[in-house]
Amino acid sequence: MAGGRKKGDGHPKSGGRKAGTPNKITREKKELIASFIDGNWEEFVEAFHNLDESRKCQIMVDLLPFAVPRLASVEYKDKSQPKTLQDELDEISGEKTRKK
């Protein structure tokens, strides 16, 4: 049974779309959606102003990710405990020399 080339077979990709290039259907759908939004923007704004405050807030929260990038989470490490000599030796050697 003859099949297509297997991924990672050592041969580079040839033909087809370049990596990251959206296909024709995706591009057309995005253009249709953008056109619909542009053509109905004034109606959306008018309807928005007629909503109650809680619904307005919900719409604003829903739209935030499209306007403000999401921040990555940050891990906090408590450094208030002074390092022991053993901890410093572990760091220098790159491995744990004892179990805690």
Task: List its salient traits.
3 helices, 100 residues, mainly alpha, flat
Word description of this protein:
With 100 residues, the chain is mainly α. It has a domain at 21-66. The protein is 50% helix and 0% strand. It is flat and about 70 Å long. The model has no long low-confidence stretch (mean pLDDT 82).
List the helices and strands and how they pair.
Layout: H1 24-49, H2 53-67, H3 85-93
Class from helix and strand fractions: mainly alpha
Low-confidence region ranges:
none
C-alpha geometry:
flat
Q: What is the number of strand segments?
A: 0
Task: Give the overall average pLDDT.
Answer: 82
Question: Into which percent range does the helicity of residues fall?
Answer: 40-55%
H/E order of the elements?
A: HHH
Write down the Rg.
Answer: 28 Å
Distance between the amino and carboxyl termini:
57 Å
Total DSSP helices: 3
**Major sheet summary line:** none
Percent of residues in β-strands? under 5%
